[in-house]
Amino acid sequence: MIGDKLFYKTLLKELFSDPFTIRFWDGSVEKFGEGESKFQIIFNEPISKGDIINDPSITFGEAYMTKKLEIKGNLQFVVESIYNNKESFLNKSEKYEKLIKKFKTSIKRCKNNIQFHYDIGNDFYKLWLDDSMNYSCGYFKNNTDSLKQAQSNKINHILTKLNLKEGQSLLDIGCGWGELIIKAAKQYKVKAIGVTLSLEQLQKANERIKAAGLEDLVEVKLQDYREIKNVSFDRIVSVGMLEHVGLENLPEYFHIVNDLLKDKGLSLLHCITAVNEGGNNTWIDKYIFPGGHVPAIKNIITDIAELELELIDIESLRRHYGKTLEHWAENYENVLPIVEKTKDETFIRMWRLYLNSCAASFNCGNINVHQILFAKGVNNDLSLTRDYMVK
Questions:
Q1: What gap in Å lies between CA 194 and CA 330, rounded to an integer?
Q2: Which residue among 196, 221, 229, 327 is least crowded, i.e. fewest CB within 10 A of its CB?
Q3: How far is the C-alpha of 166 from the C-alpha of 93, rounded, in Å?
Q4: What's the angle, vertex CA 146, arms to CA 142 and CA 151, rounded to 5?
Q5: Which of 104, 122, 124, 105 is nearest to 198 (CA)?
Q6: Rounded-to-integer distance, Cα 356 and Cα 274, Å
Q7: How far apart are CA 326 and CA 362, in angstroms?
Q8: What is the pLDDT along the chain (391 residues), one digit of tens a residue?
Q9: What whole-number distance in Å separates Cα of residue 244 and Cα of residue 87?
Q10: What is the pTM of this model?
Q11: Given the DSSP bridges, would you call strands 20-23 and 39-43 parallel, antiparallel or unpaired?
């Protein structure tokens, strides 16, 4: 046990950028760093050293979920303390950088992965998302914007960038619960089709389309985007979906979008991005988003350029996603009495860790989120400036 304690102390003192204390299973406490401790790491029992060495992300994530490990203090702040420590051994050691399984994702596997995350149940998501059921980065025009207002801003921002005209056709790849295509049909009178691999999203989206009386303009299908054939669109949008495509399938995604777009057509991609090499956190891959991969921004731009698609606009929304996740994390804590009726403590702690660690990742610049607008062929009908995008 003494060897275990020495291992943890050696490991953790290199990990955090802020002063903290460790409390071990035998009640002993040790402090690290100068000044007052900002948080406390509590080991309720020893954690396998071999598991930590092989995969610290999964090991510590599972330990937190099962209460082998507890954190006294602000969880988001603790994660940010890791990300802010640019000299931490996790950032320096190459052995922990292999976070992505580079395999081609089949349609069946992709469907299973999506349903693993999104088919937890609509009732769960609507507890802590806003009324529009937008499960992606909001757009805060002001720091005082509510989550609902930020999500409405985001949809309007995307639709404005797409420069929609009445009568045009719009495809939403990974349409979620249908908010974007419903709003597009209402505001611009476009014919909109959404595809999703989630049964829960399909059911809810169809209910919302029917309630809005938009069956003649909006349709949602349970379909992989790779299965769309013999049709073309004036506009294609994808929000928070590219992260599920997988590294090996990124070029294929852009080839398919290119094939589905009409000449002079526009496409907007809204996705989480990595600064250099893409990847995924192994704990998130196992428990939250199996098969996910955060693409490097340089790879996205390369794929667009190689198809001679015209890159029109790129916008970073990193800080917006940090604020969005903070809202979600706060909402989640507020509805825990309801969540506890159907979910066990491991599930509850798992989602708390997920939401807070993601907020920390965006706030620290570990990852980003970009909106990327591009066109098929040369389109000289667009505005000479981007002023039309800001309303």
A1: 30
A2: 229
A3: 54
A4: 90
A5: 122
A6: 18
A7: 10
A8: 444 677 788 778 778 888 999 999 989 999 998 899 999 999 999 888 767 766 778 888 999 999 999 999 999 999 888 888 765 444 444 433 433 233 334 555 555 555 545 556 778 889 999 998 898 999 999 999 999 999 999 999 999 999 999 999 999 999 999 999 999 999 999 999 999 988 888 999 999 999 999 999 999 999 989 889 899 999 999 999 999 888 778 899 999 999 999 999 999 999 999 987 777 778 887 778 777 789 999 999 999 999 999 999 999 999 999 999 999 999 999 999 999 999 989 999 999 999 999 999 999 998 999 999 999 998 898 888 988 888 6
A9: 30
A10: 0.76
A11: parallel
Amino acid of residue 120: I
Distance CA 311, CA 322 (A): 26
Tokens 């937008």 locate to 134
Of the candidates 87, 76, 92, 145, the residue with the CA atom closest to the CA atom of residue 360:
76
Q: Which of 137, 175, 271, 358 is catalytic?
A: 358
Is 358 labeled as catalytic in the residue annotation?
yes
Query: What is the side-by-side order of every strand in the sheet holding 261-273?
Result: 218-222, 191-196, 169-173, 233-239, 261-273, 368-375, 310-316
Backbone angles phi, psi at 340, to 5 degrees: -60, -15
d(CA 125, CA 120): 8
- Residue 179 identity: E
SS3 388: helix
